[in-house]
Amino acid sequence: MFSAESRTTDVIAGINLAGKTAFITGASTGLGLETTRTLAGAGCRVILAARPGEKLDKALAAVRQDFPAVQADAVALELTDFDSIRACAAAVQQLTDKLDLLVNNAGIMAVPFARTPAGCESQFGTNHVGHFLLTNLLVPLLLNAGKARVINLSSGGHKHCPVDFADIHWQTREYNKWGAYGQAKTANALFTVALQKRLGDKGVSVFAVHPGAIPTELGRHLTQEDIEALMNSKSFGGEKKESGGNSRGRLLFKDIPQGAATTVWAATSPELDGKGGLYLEDCGIAEEVPVGVAEHGYYAWAVDPAAAEQLWQVSEQIVGQTFTW
Prior knowledge:
39% of the residues lie in helices and 12% in strands. The chain has one domain: 3-Layer(aba) Sandwich (Rossmann fold). The protein is an alpha/beta fold.
C-alpha cells in the first residue's frame, strides 16, 4: 500500500521493464528526469524529450552513464511549435516501432501572459495543445505495443478553473496566471478522459496524475506570496474550515522522488491493468470532492465527458488536424 510519502524506489520495487520502451517529455530535469531514471533502472528503454540544449545533453549522458545496459536516446521538443512537435514525433518513429509508455510530463506554471505561435495562451498551448498533437501523432506506436499506457500530468491546480470554452485564450478576460494554469491542468485531465474513450478498447490505458506540490524549476515564476497561499491551501476557494470537513489539512510539499512516484506507479502498477481514464494522486486512485476542498481529490469539471469531447474538437481545430481513433 503506497501513500503520499512513497518514493519512486518504493513503487518500482520488484518491477522488471526489460523489453519496454518509454517516451518522456520534460525529461531533462525535475520530475521528468526522475521518472526517466526510475524507468531506466527497471530495464526500460527510454527516449528523453525536452528543449534542445545543455540540460537535455547532460540528462541523456547521466542516464547512459548510470544505466549502461539500457538504451537511451534523446529528441528535441518545443511544445509551442507544431513543426517541432511533428519533427519530434517523426524522430521517435525512426528510433522505435512501439511505445509501451508515454509520459506527458513537461509543462509550465503561473507564467506571465504570452501567446504561442498558434495564438494560444501559453500555458494552455504548452501544457495541453502541444501534448494533444504529440500524443496523437504517436498513437500508432502505442497501438503497436499491444498494451500501452499514457500518463498525462495534470495537477490539483485544475481546481483554479475549468476550461472556459468561450474565452480559452484569454482574449476578453483579464489574464490571471492561476486561472490560466488551472484551465490548462483541467484540459490535461479532460484529454485523459477523451483519449481513454478512443483508445481504451484498443489496449491503451490513459491516466491523469496529480504529482503533488514539489519544489522544481516549474515554480520558478512563483512569488513568496504565491507559495504562502499554496501552503495555506487558500488558492482553491476559501479557508480550510470551509471545505466541508473533508480536508486533509495544510498542503504538504514533496521532494522529487516522492513527486514522481505517482507517475511511475501509473506507468507500471499491476493494480491498474485494464483500467484507464482515472485521476491519480498519492500513488492511488483519487476521489471526486466538492468545490472548496483544496488539498486532495478532483473536481467534477476535470472528468466531465461532455467537456472532454468539446475540448477534443477545439484542440483538433487549433492543430489543424483531425484524429479518428
